[in-house]
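Lab notebook, page 48
Experiment: co-folding of the full assembly
Goal: obtain a model of how the components sit together before planning crosslinking
Operator: M.T.
Materials (sequences as entered):
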Amino acid sequence: MKHTIAALVDNKPGVLARISGLFSARGFNIDSLAVGETNDPTVSRMTIIVDAKDERILEQIKKQLHKLIDIITVLDLTEKEFFERELVLIKVNGQNTDNLQSAIEKFSAKVLSADEKTTIIEAVGSRAEISELLNGLKDIGISELVRTGRIAIAK
Amino acid sequence: MKKNGAQILIDALLKEGVEVIFGYPGGSVLPLTDLLYESTLKVIQVRHEQGAAHAADGYARSTGKVGVCLATSGPGATNLVTGIATAFMDSVPMVAITGQVKTGLIGNDAFQEADVTGITRPITKHNYLVKDITQFASIIKEAFYIASTGRPGPVLIDVPVDIQIQETEFVYPETVNMRSYKPPLNGDSVQIQKALRLISQSERPVIYSGGGVIISGASEQLREFALKFNIPVTTTLLGLGAFPEDNELSLGMLGMHGTVYANNAIMESDLIIAIGARFDDRVTGKISEFAPYAKIIHIDIDPSAISKNVAVDVPIVGDAKHILLELNKEVTQSDLGDWLLKIKEWKNKYPLVYSRSSGKISPQYVVEQIDKITKSDAIICTEVGQNQMWAAQYYQYTKPRTFISSGGLGTMGYGFPAAIGAKVAMPDKVVFDIAGDGSIQMNIQELATAVENKINVKIVILNNSYLGMVRQWQELFYHKRYAYTPISGPDFVKLAQSYGAVGLRVEKEEDVAKVLEQAIALPNVVVIDFIIDPGANVLPMVPAGEAINRMIGGMS
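Observation: model returned without errors.
Model output:
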């Protein structure tokens, strides 16, 4: 099962390596990981989507994360109500087709640039929304795709 | 007052109460070793950096203090790695200091450069690369704090050579306050009450005590707890000495080479009280069949140790000593007569036994004689393999910090340098390294260190000309195909002599006690080469992957 974990960590070099090393050493699976500074510049926040087979593994992931010296707190957002968003940049082939226009409208996506050959669009949404958008664009032809990884915040 | 990095480090070590450093010089620690040369800190110069790490580890395990080792950059630092990993697996407080190439050269593949913080990240509790001299003092303070508190472990500080020369105002912090590291101490009182309720309802309780009890300094409290509630105690390998084995409640060690009665007690128990132990695979055997009738109370300072391998009914996170003190406040009357009687029957029926019929020296007999002659009052270090298990089984441990062995990582070559560290810490104690002829060859170069510094440890080689534990597995599970386990060694007597130590050889059982007494009396480093029965096995034994009450051998 997928869990969304938020970790507040000391904004120091090597912290990301510690976390990624921990996941690989203990055989935990990361689905997505996003890092950024918080309103306190000495603190970074990581949103980690993990795939845990069962409750015991999830517990271990949380405890092992917490055990790292640079980690301040570990929150399992899946336990509460939370918002999860991802930003994607998509380069699609071709011009302004009707299909493209309706997809852009439906997902309130933004056109960053458009010419005869390609259109670059930006979209923000939940995991489900992003997949739906990507599905809708499949026929038009995606030539390049960049995703930030999901970030999340509890209510 | 302004001081340079090297001086800051030395002053900080002195403030932390460090008395001795085990180390080896090199290009990237020259400013530091140059100043150490005139400081009051004692430096034991080893012959290989691995020896330094193990010696610091042995020093730490025999005292509870933080052990300190030092090596230069690159190969010096990578040679520490096995020693650091050994300390990490067994929760040993250690600070490892490594030199690093100049800050400006880091990442350039400079001479003797290695990414030591990268390499040691998964085998340290924490590590630091010092990039700013003004941070150095607080890093050292944090390093000692992290190494010695909570679940202890090794912390590495990588110090570029230019940082050792740069100067800054030196102020050593009095306290540490890290928002991201606050080890727990007291157990949750609700959980403690739940535990007491389970204990009062239990008819067949067992205490399963691990290395955490020794680390916490809780042996006295454990004894009081066991005696008060009348609960039998089995210990892990690293827990040996936490509970006196001459007490009738002692079940000795459990697990793969534990006693039949300890394993039986666990398997029939209705309540296991695990204290500072981690349900390691060598203890549990087949996990799905482990202790089928038991509820489990688990006391541990490391939350991640709880419910990692087995599901726990009552977890209590905190320091073993604090929690035992709380549990001991309970006034209780318990009647466990039937259970204790059953255990007594098992003890009578399945004692630890070994054969003495081969005409060759039985290794178990040698260990028993060491126990007898030292009156269970020596510090016993071991290598890894059969020697380690015989040392665990046939010496009666009655005090904490008297059995020193690499449990988690199982590092051959650990025992001798660890014995050097223990003897430096405890000069008045008789310190033995119980070794095999394979393991001793892994760090034999430290004979020079021991002789030069008059660190008079006694090395017992149980010499069977085999890598005995692997040979035993080959005998039992690999059709007696002894692939790469017969090994030759040097003439250990001559080898000892060439290093300036005393070398003795014993080939007959009747000479064992006499030569051991002679070795203890000699004011020298002594190597005793016992030519033992090459067919001797460590029994009883739980085959890997079996339930722990399916033991082979060792039953009369």
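Interpretation: Chain A touches chain B at residues 9-10, 14, 17-18, 21-22, 25, 56, 59-60, 63-64, 66-67, 69-72 (CB under 8 Å).
Next step: discuss with group before ordering constructs.
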